[in-house]
Amino acid sequence: MTTDQQHKDKIGVLFVCLGNICRSPMAEAMFRHLVQQEGLADRFNIDSAGTGDWHTGNPPHQGTRTILDRYGISYEGLRARQVAANDFSDFDYIIAMDDSNVSNLRKLMKGASTEVIKLLDLVPDVKLKDVPDPYYTGNFDETYELVGKGNKALLGHIRREHNL
Ligand code: 4NP
């Protein structure tokens, strides 16, 4: 089976932010960790990307690495990349961190019909609906907490849709 076919059998989840060095790699690493804990790792194809290309090839930001280290969550091998046209067919769930990611994605999608979900729209009990960008706020703890809530809600959403 080719890698492409293997990927088609799995539930594809792509986390998207602007630079792919702070929020979306944090969400990717945390979601990988969560599905491993739940015994579902082999059901998923998980990745992240940025709508911008400035950091292509770079590892996650030091602040993201520090907080993931603190919680024992691996980010091994993660490297930034830009969203590509085939992402809209390769992934079932495109998960944006904020409104500007959603509008940038719409421009990159060129009419593709893949649903784009904003992570915190899945969480009923948070007031913030955009994940704050720690590249600007410097507050990686706040981002970690919100992404954790979002990821739990996302897994619940996917479990319901896929009877997992
Ligand atoms: P991210 O944060 O979208 O959460 O990865 C940013 C990282 C880099 C830049 C902006 C936001 N930048 O302008 O280089």
UniProtKB/TrEMBL annotation:
Listed Gene3D superfamilies: 3.40.50.2300
Pfam family, one: LMWPc
Molecular function per GO: protein tyrosine phosphatase activity
Enzyme active site: C17, R23, D133
Positions of the Phosphotyrosine protein phosphatase I domain: 11-157
Main enzyme class: hydrolase
EC number: 3.1.3.48
InterPro entries: LMW_PTPase (IPR050438), Ptyr_pPase (IPR023485), Ptyr_pPase_sf (IPR036196), Tyr_phospatase_low_mol_wt (IPR017867)
Keywords carried by this UniProt record: Hydrolase, Protein phosphatase
Source superkingdom: Bacteria
Catalytic activity: O-phospho-L-tyrosyl-[protein] + H2O = L-tyrosyl-[protein] + phosphate
Family: Belongs to the low molecular weight phosphotyrosine protein phosphatase family.
Protein name: protein-tyrosine-phosphatase
